[in-house]
Specification:
It contains seven helices and ten strands. Strands 1, 2, 3, 4, 5, 6, 7, 8, 9 and 10 form a ten-stranded mixed β-sheet that branches. By secondary structure, it is α+β, with helices and mostly antiparallel strands. The chain has one domain. A hairpin with a 2-residue loop joins strand 1 and strand 2. Helix content is about 35%, strand content about 30%.
């Protein structure tokens, strides 16, 4: 009887720790879901966002990329990466990533509320899943920045591998300095959200991991891409 009580007590103590460990990750997923909803119907999104998503191979969402500093600046934040199955229009579960960049020059502190990378092919998706992806430095990866309310060319002749869309608070589009930024998997978040053996590649391509907390994000993307 005492042994049973000890086991029950151990589970009772562990449960809050597990819930707390996933709180940051779930918050990132929920914020990414809100960004997708804004891309569907909110002001300022590219006019052909639905068409882009229907042709996309994946999407990377940074819901809150914070930029701060004066003279020497830095920006960073957590985001998620999902792949899309073109045959079924289903989206993978999200893997967690982090973006970081520095800059030099006169600048005022600001918060960029969201940055979205729409990934158009396997080459770009595989590059982003690497241990470290440096924006603008990957040979053969063409990145086009879309302004608020603009329409991006989605023709294969355009040769664009990734479309980047950045939107500041209050719906204002800013000239975001993405070049030189580094994107890396957030391994701790991936393990805490899915389990100790979860890796970004397995989550995005292997489809071997599940967390029902991300189903809302996957469903929102399916709706946004015409599913």
């Amino acid at each position: 009887m005492i042994r049973i009580l000890m086991i029950v007590a151990a589970f009772a103590l562990a449960a809050p720790q597990v819930a707390w460990a996933q709180a940051n990750e779930q918050a990132a997923v929920d914020r990414a879901t809100a960004v997708v909803e804004l891309l569907r119907a909110g002001p300022g999104a590219p006019t052909n966002m639905g068409e882009l998503l229907r042709k996309a191979r994946g999407i990377m969402i940074f819901p809150e990329l914070v930029k701060a500093g004066f003279i020497l600046g830095a920006q960073g934040g957590s985001g998620v990466l999902l792949s899309r199955d073109p045959a079924t229009n289903t989206w993978s579960y999200p893997a967690f990533y982090v973006f970081g960049a520095g800059s030099l020059g006169l600048q005022a502190g600001a918060q960029i509320s969201r940055i979205v990378f729409i990934i158009m092919n396997d080459k770009a998706l595989n590059a982003l899943m690497a241990d470290e992806f440096k924006v603008g430095a990957e040979a053969g990866i063409a990145i086009a920045t879309i302004g608020a309310g603009a329409e991006a060319s989605t023709t294969s002749a355009g040769g664009t591998d990734i479309y980047a869309f950045a939107q500041q608070p209050m719906g204002l589009y800013g000239g975001i300095a993405l070049q030189g930024g580094v994107i890396k998997p957030r391994a701790v978040y991936n393990r805490e959200y899915y389990g100790p053996s979860a890796r970004a590649q397995d989550i995005v391509l292997g489809l071997a991991t599940r967390n029902p907390g991300a189903d809302g994000l996957r469903n929102a993307l399916a709706r946004a891409s015409g599913g």
